[in-house]
Amino acid sequence: MVFLHRVRLADNTPMAVEFSVLQEKCSPILDEDLARGSLHAALGKLGFPPVSGRSSVTAAAIAGQDAKLLQLPRHTPMLIERRIISDDAGKPLEYTESRYVSERYRLEVEFVVAHPSIGE
């Protein structure tokens, strides 16, 4: 297994703390510049393209090391996203937990509403 622990920045402001676990076959990712580049772009470049995923989002209060890394007082609200990303064969490739500073992040969701057929 490959473990990544990153602080995600925007204009040098900490936006999120991210912990990822990747399949061992993805170990060449450790040679990529993930400080400036996308994890998913790097995985694709290495021949492990992320294709699909499932995610859940919840809220919690920031604590401990996250508060220090994100430069916030303890108990500040945050959003926690947990996701599993799969490869083109449908096999899990990545598990990530991202802890976002809620006041610095906006979640936008787009979806299609499926209408049942008449008579069903």
Please tell me about this protein's structure.
- With 120 residues, the protein is mostly beta strands.
- 11% of the residues lie in helices and 41% in strands.
- The protein is built from 2 helices and 5 strands, in the order ββαβαββ.
- It has a 5-stranded antiparallel β-sheet, with no helix packed on it.
- The longest helix is centred in the middle third of the chain and has 7 residues, at 39-45.
- It starts with a strand and ends in a 19-residue tail after the last strand.
List the main descriptive attributes of the protein structure presented here.
120 residues; mainly beta; 5-stranded antiparallel β-sheet; 5 strands; 11% helix; 41% strand
Residues in β-strands, percent: 35-45%
Overall shape: it is globular
The largest β sheet comes out as:
5 strands, antiparallel
Mean pLDDT: 89
Number of helices: 2
Uncertain spans, ≥5 residues at pLDDT below 50? none
How would you spell out the order of helices and strands? EEHEHEE
How much helix is in the residues?
10-25%
Structural class: mainly beta
Instruction: Identify the strand order in the major beta sheet.
Output: 1-2-5-4-3
Task: Determine the N-to-C terminus distance.
Answer: 47 Å
Cα radius of gyration in angstroms: 17 Å
Number of strands: 5
